[in-house]
């Protein structure tokens, strides 16, 4: 197994786990399991940070892959929305985590549903973009 494959699959696995942790955290808070919710969301953040490191390593070491498929319009719309929302979601995630950890739950409850929804979209479209390139 070469370095490119390790970085590619490592990033896919970590962002997938991150998305599953977000989904688990949403379920936990709906069931009033605050401590489990907290740890699921912190785990999601941890795996997302690992993803960013792996993704940045891969994209800085290896050349960009040009999309050659039949669904260019759908691919680029998905890629654009994925990229844009991932950039938008980063400060939202920081604010959501900070407000939750500091006990500012009114603010946390206002922004958290949007942050979680965007996070799930970005995680899912990351996998979709990968499948487009197969």
Rg measurement, Å: 16 Å
Give the overall pLDDT as a whole number: 96
CATH architecture annotation name: Up-down Bundle
Unreliable spans: none
Strand content: under 5%
Q: Count the beta strands.
A: 0
Order of helices and strands: HHHH
Annotated CATH topology: Four Helix Bundle (Hemerythrin (Met), subunit A)
Category from helices, strands and their pairing: mainly alpha
Described by strand count, sense and barrel closure, the largest sheet is: none
Distance between the termini: 18 Å
CATH superfamily: Cytochrome c oxidase, subunit III, four-helix bundle
Number of helices: 4
- Overall 3D geometry? elongated
What number of domains?
1
The CATH top-level class label: Mainly Alpha
Helix content: over 70%
Describe this structure in words.
This protein is mostly helical. It has one domain: Cytochrome c oxidase, subunit III, four-helix bundle (Four Helix Bundle (Hemerythrin (Met), subunit A), Up-down Bundle), CATH 1.20.120. Helix content is 85%, strand content 0%. The protein is built from 4 helices and no strands. The relative contact order is 0.15.
């Amino acid at each position: 197994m070469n370095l490119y494959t390790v970085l590619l699959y490592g990033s896919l696995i970590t962002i997938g786990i991150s998305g599953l942790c977000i989904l688990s955290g949403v379920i936990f808070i709906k069931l009033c399991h605050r401590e489990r919710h907290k740890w699921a969301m912190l785990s999601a953040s941890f795996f997302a940070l690992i993803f960013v490191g792996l993704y940045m390593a891969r994209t800085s070491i290896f050349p960009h892959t040009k999309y050659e498929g039949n669904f260019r319009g759908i691919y680029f719309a998905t890629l654009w929305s994925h990229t844009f929302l991932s950039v938008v979601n980063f400060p939202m995630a920081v604010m959501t985590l900070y407000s939750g950890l500091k006990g500012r739950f009114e603010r946390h409850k206002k922004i958290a549903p949007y942050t979680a929804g965007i996070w799930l979209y970005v995680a899912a479209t990351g996998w979709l973009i990968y499948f487009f390139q197969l």
